[in-house]
Amino acid sequence: MAHLQKIRNALLAAFFATATPVVTAQQTQVEPGLQRAVNWKWSVAPWDNYRWGLDPREVPVLAAQSPSQGPVQPEMPRVHTIKRGDYLVRVAKRYGLTVAQLKEFNGLADDFVTIGQEIRIPSPAERLLLKSTPKSSDKKQEAGVEPSEVLLLRVFLANQGFSTGPIQDTPDENFGRILNLFQTGRGEAMDHVALVEAARKGLPHPIAVYTLKPEDFKFISTPKAVAAPAGDLTSAGKEPPKAAPPAPLRYEEMLLEGFLAYRSPWEFVAERFQCDEAFLRKMNPGLGPYPPAGSAFRVPNVPPFAVELVPSRNFQPAADSAEPVVATVSDMSVFEIRRGGKLVAAMPISRARPSLRAKGTWRILNAMPRPRLQTIQEPRVQRVDQPLPFYRNPNPTPTPRPATLARPQTLQPGPNNPAGVVWINLARGDEKEPLPFGLHGSAFPSSMFSKEGIGGFRMANWDIVRAASLLPEGSILEWKP
Asked: Is the dihedral of CA 14, 15, 21, 24 positive or negative?
């Protein structure tokens, strides 16, 4: 018996020496709320024409005050006419400004004014842009006011159609890749010094100001709890409440939402201006956890992503045989678009799960704005191996599949749908049947390289909209290492 056991062990060793090893997926972090959902098969469904945005409701407005706060403050006048006894210091003090601010805003060379002269009064948003606006000595108040070279280049590149991912003031791998591609990929070699000079010349103001509007709240969910009444201003001498992000929805909560809206005004403004939310909070330390309409945000000076204008129908351009469009995914991290051989756009891209692979030549099919995601909780096909002390079983006994749902569960459309605001179908080679995974947006653009999700190949919402507007149906998609 011992002799037979030795022969059996030798045969097993020879077999597993030539067998293809089974690779087990590494444990990864998962996007909030999707910890179980990443294990199920999902399908994409078109918009159901129900709605795009939340139902009308009362929203917090900065000018509105509760009775306990006293009367509503009158709107700041835009022009002050100089009367007898007025002088510039007195006018500035009346409107809570400095003389330097009034002089800069009105282009005054000195402090001399005359009776009847009209002095323009800057709005709160306009005064933030003035060079003469006093800077607090508090480090927290000063944070992010002066743009760094990295921030300048990120904003400049975004304006040229080269997205570096969510804008912040520190470099990362995406910034390095896109920067290098911009300098070399268009056939216009440009050294770093020349690029910075071009950015400063072409973008003298990399920081702009955006005032939150009441209509923006159509895409911002109501917070579960707000510490202060709507529009309540910070009491004198007290620190503003810490602007911590609200907790992401759990999967069961997502299913109950008729529209997957932004969780807070911070998230809305960050995505509107292609910005990392943590960096936006750093630039605006004086705003509370749920800024009301009328709040002025410092933001990167980039073309705004208007979620309200995401179309309901396919908006891909028509194909042009004279200037064919080709898309390339390089190193599973950068999505490049060329028209007539010229690089016209580039943006970061990531895969929703580590096991997703692609190679060769594919095709761009139709774009589906405002997508929904559906599942009957059928498990994704996964190989399960049973590691033993000396070998791995390459053909384990299949585990029985759990029962699936009789009716699909649906994650409704919205900027916080895991597939974002646009889904682009893909096919291999010249096939016409779309694959179960496509190009799509992301609810968490700042973590799409570090967290697993559902779907296929992810971009930020502002990038997927731009990509769809540049890619005709039938365009070639190349995968390169």
From this structure: negative
The CATH number of the domain where 118 resides is what? 3.10.350.10
Beta bridge partners of 80: 119
| pLDDT tens-place string over residues 280-290 | 999 999 898 99
Q: Is 178 left (phi over 0), alpha (psi -120 to 50) or beta?
A: alpha
DSSP 275: B
Say if strands 79-81 and 118-120 run parallel, antiparallel, or are unpaired: antiparallel
Show the CA angle centred on residue 92, arms to residues 90 and 96, nearest 5°.
Answer: 120
In this structure, what are the phi and psi dihedrals at residue 40, rounded to the nearest 5 degrees? Answer: -105, 160
Whether the CB-CB separation of 88 and 113 falls below 8 Å is answered with: yes
**Do the Cβ atoms of 461 and 354 come closer than 8 Å?**
no
User: Is 112 among the domain residues?
Assistant: yes
Note whether 280 and 181 are same-domain residues. yes
321 and 452 co-located in one domain: yes
Q: Other CB atoms closer than 10 Å to residue 351's CB: what's the count?
A: 21
Examine the domain organization and report whether 338 and 426 are in the same domain. Answer: yes
Same domain, 45 and 161: no
What is the rounded radius of gyration, in angstroms, for the C-alpha atoms of the chain? 28
Same domain, 462 and 331: yes
Domain assignment of residue 318, yes or no: yes
Give how many domains the chain has, as a whole number: 3
Euclidean distance between CA atoms 276 and 448, whole angstroms: 12
Surface-to-core class of residue 284, CB atoms within 10 Å of its CB (0-12 exposed, 13-18 middle, 19+ buried) = buried
Q: DSSP string spanning 11-54? A: HHHHHHHHSPPPPPPPP-EE-TT-TTGGGB--EEE---SS-SSP
State the alpha helices, DSSP H only, in 160-206: 173-184, 192-202
CB atoms inside a 10 Å sphere around CB 230: 16
DSSP character at residue 272: H
Domain match, 315 and 436 both: yes
Q: Measuring CA to CA, which residue among 447, 80, 72 is closest to residue 276?
A: 447
- Give the pLDDT of residue 86: 87
- Please check whether residue 20 lies inside any domain of the structure: no
What is the crossing angle of helices 173-184 and 192-202, to 10°?
90
C-alpha 156/C-alpha 162 separation (Å) is: 9
In eight-state DSSP terms, residue 291 is P
Q: Give the pLDDT means over successive 10-residue stretches in the chain (481 positions).
A: 44 35 50 94 93 92 49 56 86 84 85 86 75 56 62 96 96 93 78 89 91 96 62 44 75 96 97 97 92 94 96 93 96 96 96 91 97 95 56 59 84 97 96 94 95 96 97 97 89
Range of the domain at 102: 77-122
